[in-house]
Design brief:
Blueprint lengths: L2 H4 L9 H15 L9 H30 L3 E5 L3 E2 L4 H8 L2 H10 L4 H5 L6 E2 L3 H15 L4 E6 L7 E5 L2 E5 L11 E3 L5 E5 L2 E4 L7 E4 L2 E13 L6 E10 L7 H5 L3 H12 L16 H25 L6 H4 E6 L6 H12 L4 H11 E4 L10 E3 H7 L1 H21 L4 H7 L2 E2 L5 E3 H7 L3 E4 L2 H9 L3 H6 L4 E3 L6 H7 L2 H11 L21 H18 L7 E6 L8 H17 L8 E6 L7 H18 L8 E4 L6 H7 L5 E4 L11 H7 L3 E4 L5 H8 L5 E2 L4 H9 L4 H7 L1 H12 L3 H13 L5 H19 L2 H13 L6 H13 L11
Parallel strand pairs: 1-4, 1-13, 4-12, 13-14, 14-18, 18-19, 20-21, 20-23, 21-22, 23-24, 24-25
Antiparallel strand pairs: 2-3, 5-6, 7-11, 8-11, 9-10, 11-12, 15-17, 16-17
Helix pairs in contact: 2-3, 2-5, 3-4, 7-34, 12-13, 12-15, 14-15, 21-22, 22-33, 23-24, 23-30, 23-32, 24-31, 29-30, 30-31
The structure holds 1-beta-D-glucopyranosylpyrimidine-2,4(1H,3H)-dione.
């Protein structure tokens, strides 16, 4: 019997009638309703299932092709995935958009109404989580056999509400109505241990038995990750913590102790309850460490299970497996793989270490010292006693290696040790990640260079070949094709076909159109139409956007000083020929990061003040839409004229919002930081507004005793802006922000103020010449091809993973 028919795989290439039939059958049999009584939600769910089933057929063929070829698999381990809404993406990737529109219309609904019901799973904080989502998209697009592992947080990144009081946080129960994109896989559940103690094994010096004090179940579900323009459909597998049956205390329940009866179960399930809303600045807490180990333990057992389905012994494990650690959050995977190999599978330590080192690679995403994760040794000892022993042994052998290379250099040993001694003994996760991997990469050229020269310099001296750069990228599907349909259509027309969506370097063909006046006019009209859709302000004003997490190093406060200065200039001279601007801020601050929340509140206060001022408001408007997320980004980015990338040089590892904005024809004003440098090199110096200190000048300024007051005293406009804050007219929050800037100014805001303002004047000069501005805009898009995450994945595949594509045959 033909098994395909046996399991009833449905054929693709459906007719409108067949698609309609599938939709109706989902409506009847899965939603249990009828055409007459179907609600919008019924229609949405039935449609989502129909599209999902369509991709599931490709998934089945993908799994068959990938398993048959027994390749080296890429496993991407990430505590965060900021996936964005799924419906529109899956319609595009499955090519069923038109069929879907027609089918739901027959039910009396518009596709757009149903898209409004498609909730984005906010399983990430910011750039790092969104990068993970772009990379899994491009892995599938490149036909690379891969699985992304993550945590299925019940509550994603908080919902933000902005008022004049600043940011309020509400829980994000994203799957309240269920998640139609997900397949549960309870049979693949894993048991994860915590706490307890270790026992020696007689006759062995390296093996031990770990007897955990608590066991929690990890239950996986997966979401489909289709490739674009190819047959491949990969998956991300997300783990939910479940209490074991034994954790429900029936006798207590019978005795009326209801809370006590479930307390153990609640504690277990809390592990995947919430995404930590920290970004970079880490509040180390036991639950967070538990989450990390939970992700790692479930995923590694799953990876080993998958390996053993097709292979025997351990000799080929590293040839068939590469595990990419997305920052240090999943780094416990290194001692965990050692524990599995040595303790459970009885592999000799040396062989296990060789396998481990060849299996892992580590991506670092920061340069901020406070963002380099460390965990107290006493917490590790309590929660993961066996892992701490293994880390000690890894460290001892590692320090021996260092000692052999640099005899007698005790300071070096202290600096490089995986264990920090003072002021408190802590495990340095970044050191563990460098020691236990084959490759370490930064995420932009400058970042990778600074990693080698500063935070990881000792390691780069020991193992220079281990350190690489892989510049980040973004998905062209989500961030232009879907986000900006008008511009996408014009580009397709200009280039003659739409192959650029899967081969972004083709955008370079737009260069010749930058000098075509009629093309420029159409380009400009599209930007305007996108602004009308966004409805943030006057569509003819310069739309100046700063969209990203709130962090002092990103310097939203510098933008704010610019706004205050414009406000004061306009008030002093209302009759001058001002360039109307709409300044749009969006982004979240970690709930416990008070300085960042102060800046949000100050922006909200100043926005209201400007709005109420009849002299200034015709020229200047500040808007702050609530709850920045992927969906909102997709609306703002196509409408942006100016992209603010103004971090202190040497602090932003890469940035990816900068790439999305340039791709959509926003011109960047930015410092020589992160990927800004590479954007500028590609779009050309004339099409980028550069200001500020570079990374080396910034580091030197601090060493030379930087005094913010020095700048305050010498710059009249800066002084006026700061004095306004200090005067209290914008409340206590204005005073606090001013005090922090005048007192220490960690990120040299005042040092870069004048250069930034002068650069903004250049921006206005260019803006006044629409032909020139539009030319710059077109050239930004034309030269953004490098920033496709398809290129990023190709780089990882060639230089770090050494994997080849496994194409999936088309349906016969
Ligand atoms: N990043 O979003 C985060 N969270 C962190 O904890 C550390 C870094 C960001 O990662 C992005 C992707 O690599 C970078 O573009 C960005 O510069 C960095 O801040």
């Amino acid at each position: 019997m033909d098994l395909r028919q046996g399991i009833g795989l449905r054929k693709l290439g459906k007719t409108a009638d067949e698609f309609q039939q599938d939709l109706l059958s989902n409506l009847y049999y899965r939603r249990g309703t009828t055409v007459e009584s179907a609600s919008a939600r019924d229609a949405y769910e039935a449609l989502a299932q129909t599209v999902r089933d369509h991709l599931a057929e490709r998934r089945a063929r993908t799994a068959a092709a990938q398993f048959a070829s027994n390749p080296r698999w890429v496993y991407y381990l990430s505590a965060e995935y900021l996936l964005g809404a799924q419906l529109e993406q899956n319609l595009l990737y499955s090519g069923t958009g038109d069929l879907a529109a027609e089918a739901v219309k027959a039910l009396g609904f518009g596709l757009e109404d149903l898209e409004d019901l498609d909730v984005e799973p906010g399983l990430g904080n910011g750039g790092l989580g969104r990068l993970a989502a772009c990379l899994v998209d491009s892995l599938a697009t490149r036909d690379i056999p891969a699985v992304g592992y993550g945590i299925r947080y019940d509550l994603g990144i908080f919902r933000q509400v902005i008022t004049e009081e600043g940011q309020a946080e509400l829980p994000d129960d994203w799957a309240f109505h269920g998640n139609p994109w997900e397949f549960p896989a309870p049979d693949d559940r894993q048991a994860v241990g915590f706490y307890g103690h270790t026992e020696p094994i007689p006759g062995s010096t390296t093996r031990k038995v770990w007897v955990p004090g608590e066991v929690v179940l990890g239950e996986p579900s997966h979401m489909l990750v289709p490739g674009f323009g190819t047959e491949t459909v990969n998956i991300i597998r997300l783990w939910s913590a479940k209490a074991s049956e034994a954790s429900f205390d029936l006798s207590r329940f019978s005795a009326g102790q209801y809370a006590e009866a479930v307390q153990e179960a609640v504690r277990a399930e809390n592990i995947s309850k919430v995404l930590y809303p920290d970004d970079s600045t880490e509040l180390g807490r036991e639950l967070r460490l538990k989450q990390q180990y939970f992700l790692v333990s479930c995923s590694l057992r799953d990876i080993v299970r998958r390996f053993r389905l097709r292979n025997e012994g351990w000799d080929t494990f590293a040839d068939k497996t590469v595990i990419q650690l997305n920052d240090t959050h999943p780094t416990i995977a290194i001692p965990e793989l050692m524990r599995l190999l040595v303790d459970e599978y009885e592999v000799e330590w040396e062989q296990a270490w060789e396998i481990t080192r060849r299996t892992f690679a580590y991506t670092c995403h920061t340069l901020l010292p406070e963002a380099l994760e460390t965990w107290p040794v006493r917490m590790f000892e309590k929660l993961l006693p066996r892992h701490l022993e293994i880390i000690y042994l890894i460290n001892m052998l590692f320090l021996r290696e260092v000692e052999a290379r640099f005899p007698g250099d005790h300071d070096r040993l202290r600096r490089m040790s995986i264990i920090q001694e003072d002021p408190e003994r802590r495990v340095r996760m970044a050191h563990l990640a460098v020691v236990g991997t084959e490759a370490v990469n930064g995420v932009a050229e400058l970042h990778s260079k600074l990693l080698r020269e500063t935070v990881l310099d000792d390691f780069a001296a020991l193992w220079p070949a281990k350190f690489q750069n892989v510049t980040n990228g973004v998905s062209p599907r989500r961030f232009i094709k879907i986000a900006n349909p008008r511009l996408s259509d014009l580009i397709t027309e200009g280039l003659g076909d739409d192959s650029w969506v899967g081969d972004l370097e083709r955008l370079a063909g737009l260069e010749r159109l930058a000098d075509d006046a009629s093309f420029r006019e159409r380009w400009q009209a599209i930007k305007r139409a996108n602004k009308v859709d966004l409805a943030a302000g006057d569509p003819d004003s310069l739309t100046d956007v700063m969209i990203k997490r709130f962090h002092e190093y990103k310097r939203q406060q510098l933008k704010l000083l610019h706004v205050i200065t414009l406000y004061q200039r306009i008030r002093q001279n209302p009759a001058a020929d001002w360039v109307p601007r709409t300044v749009l801020f969006a982004g979240k601050a970690a709930p416990a990061y008070h300085a960042a929340k102060d800046i949000i509140r100050l922006i909200a206060t100043i926005a209201a003040r400007i709005e109420a001022d009849p002299v200034v408001s015709p020229y200047l408007k500040v808007v702050f839409p609530s709850n920045y997320n992927v969906t909102l980004a997709e609306r703002i980015i196509p409408a942006a004229d100016l992209s603010e990338q103004i971090s202190l040089a040497g602090k932003e590892a890469s940035g990816t919002g900068n790439m999305k904005l340039a791709l959509n024809g926003a011109v960047t004003i930015g410092t020589l930081d992160g990927a800004n440098i590479e954007i500028r090199a590609r779009v050309g110096e004339d099409n980028f507004f550069l200001f500020g200190l570079d990374a080396y000048e910034a580091a030197r300024a601090r060493i030379n005793g930087y005094q913010p007051r020095h700048f305050y005293e010498r710059d009249e406009e800066l002084r006026a802006a700061m004095d306004t804050l200090t005067s209290g007219v914008f409340g206590e929050v204005g005073r606090r922000v001013a005090d922090s800037l005048l007192g220490w100014d960690e990120y040299l805001t005042l040092a870069d103020f004048r250069s930034y303002l002068e650069c903004q004047e250049q921006v206005e000069k260019s803006w006044r010449d629409p032909a020139r501005w539009t030319r710059m805009s077109i050239l930004n898009t034309a030269h953004s091809g490098f920033f496709s995450s398809d290129r990023t994945v190709a780089d990882y595949a060639a230089r770090i993973w050494r994997v080849a594509p496994v194409p999936v045959p088309r349906e016969d």
